[in-house]
Amino acid sequence: MNESVLFFFEVLVGGLLSGTMYSLVALGFVLIYKASSTFNFAQGAMVFFAVLSFCGFMEYGMPFGVAFFAVVLLMILVGLLTERLVLRPLMNQSEDTVLMATIGLGFVLEGLAQAKWGVEVRKLSLGIGDFPIPWIADNLKLFISALDLTAGLVAFVMIALLTLLFKYTKIGLGLRAVADDPGAASSIGIPLKHIMLLVWSAAGVVALVAGMMWGARAGVQFALIELALKALPVLIIGGFSSIPGAIVGGLLVGAVEKVLEVYIGPYFKGGIEAWAPYMLSILFLLYRPEGLFGEKIIRRV
Amino acid sequence: MVKKYIKKVTSALSAAVFFTTIILPGNLFAQSKETQYFSVPSSRVGPYSAMGTGYYGAQIDYMNYVNATGGVNGVMLTWQECETEYNAAKTVECYQRLMTKDGQKMVVFDTLGTPGAYAVINRMAEDKVVLAQYGYGRTDAADGTVWPWVFNAASSYWSQIAVKLRWMAELEGGGPEKLKGKKIVHLHIDTPYGREPLPTMRRLAKEWGFILVEIAIAPPGLEQQSQWLQIRQEKPDWVTFWGAGSGMNSTAMTNAARVNFPRTKMMYVTFGGAEEDMIPAGESANGTYVVSNALPGKNYPLIKNIQEKVYKAGKGNMADPNRVGTAYYNRGLGASIMWVEALRNAQKMHNKVGKAVNSEEFRAGYEAINMTDARMKELGIGGMLAPFALSCSQHEGAGKFALMQWDGKAQAFKKIKDWTGPNDPVAIRAQIVESAAKYAEENKITPKKCS
Hints:
The complex is a heterodimer of chains A (about 300) and B (about 450).
Chain A: H1 3-36, H2 43-59, H3 64-87, H4 95-117, H5 134-139, H6 146-168, H7 170-180, H8 182-187, H9 192-218, H10 223-228, H11 231-238, H12 243-263, H13 276-287
Chain B: H1 2-32, E1 35-40, H2 49-68, E2 76-81, H3 88-98, E3 100-101, E4 104-105, E5 108-109, H4 114-120, H5 124-127, E6 130-132, E7 150-151, H6 157-171, E8 183-189, H7 192-195, H8 198-208, E9 211-217, H9 225-234, E10 238-242, H10 246-258, E11 266-268, H11 275-278, E12 289-292, H12 301-311, H13 327-349, H14 359-367, E13 370-371, H15 373-379, E14 388-389, E15 401-407, E16 412-420, H16 425-442
Parallel strand pairs in B: 1-2, 5-6, 6-7, 8-9, 8-10, 10-11, 11-12
Antiparallel strand pairs in B: 3-4, 12-15, 13-14, 15-16
């Protein structure tokens, strides 16, 4: 194959694979949005908090599995406290109020994590190599690492699980009811507290998994919080309340930003992937505000 | 009930009066003791925190050490911290907030960041505050005639890039001619800091005949995949890396490993060349070259004294005392040693030994710094810095750097080359003077006459 075509494919595949990492982060946002129609600004901080705690527990000498389980429990506790201390007092308040509360929650989690575990960048080794797999490099001339493939696989499994949960269980049905109209849902006996706790805990676990993937690639560090905000264009493109939307949006953002960076970037002296996804999302806001998979909400006066 | 309450309040008040009278003489005594106030605009949280905690932690440790050993001719150092998060807007806010403390004005400001330095640099002359850019910031400030209040001591980025290129040529086995026809990628963060060395690099590319490819990374720089794919396609002979924040710095090495680019062909900027930048990259960091303007190490007598007098007394500022003596720590030490030297000079020059000085006197003292090998030995940092002297026009210092290489097995740096200046320091100086003159003209500044 022609070398420049091959290079294009390499950039594209690389972009799609890093897009799956965005999707993982975006999934956490979708979960919360489904339950409370709020963009959870604390999700980035939750990613940081979860994976930093995971590293911290490992440093205490816990084996991998135990540390993972401990962080899952910790994130459930965070979910529980969030429901009790933040969401319940704000019940029946406007969505904007809850949005502001998530910003505050983000600061608390960021601060707690750094106060407890320190500010240094940590190396997280999952035992999965992040260098080109020789067989693929030799035969397909593409540089793809085992970590890329694992991230893709993990994203796929998480999506499958969450889709099953939402589509085919009573909890999922209840959740959709709550998202639609919390007042009506609780009046017919859907336990709002339990649903909220479940959703926040699930978002915490998703945050941990996303953080572990990113942490293994780039080190466990504060900048993960900023990275997590890339989920915003992903969600605008994919639709805020759609799990498949998070996946397609993530892939699209990953592919588009990498291709633009390589081919258009040099004309702008580079570094355009910081804003290219937002430009794309503005186009979506103009022409398809509900995103690719979002529900078109019609409000009648 | 009310009576009881009033009784309580009166007894509390009288107790307060009693205690104040007893404590007051001590207070008066404390106030009569001379103090000198320093500002600490630290960056302890956020992506750049590893750098900020080390650098500013060292400054506070050194001030504590100076106070523990009797102050500067009896003048005790005081300070106040403000968190900038390495953010230019917050740096301006901190600049205003830190301006005075207990009626004393700050004499020096140290942003530890080029974006922050650019945000305040135009106020220094008006506010009469020294901007001590310790190996960072606006390069043409090295011309003291245009920038009397700004310093670029511990050497500018233009000198640094010229020295880096000199070493690349030397590692290729000769002088500048060895870089002819070679391809060098300048991989940098997309901020004023990342672009600062470009004027000198572009000039040398023309003069030496190498091909310069500029590739930018959007901050915070965790994603460098497309940049490294570009590098793989360009197949450069060398990469000069100009990153900020341990996350970005370590990510560059892991990404280089992903595309099989040899680490022994990468040369890191001073603000990527620290233990905190290397360790997170694990094995991928092995062999990376980094530039230093203040050598790391725990064996300097001053470090031992700080451990003894500050840390054993429980006053150490580093949360992890093992970080004392690392690259960022020793750089902060170098910066604060200059403050204290300037203060000492200022006291002597203005007949104020044992007294606080004002910012104009401090500025004159800063300009009079002469850091000889002998003086560094006295201070307990022999060999840690390149010897240098500042003057009315010369605000850069040595213009020299040392080259280190990361040894992954030992988890430490190895010094490869000792203090080295650019091949042609005269040309660098000419470029600085030219750029400063242009700035002076644009801003209608009359350059100061230096006799």
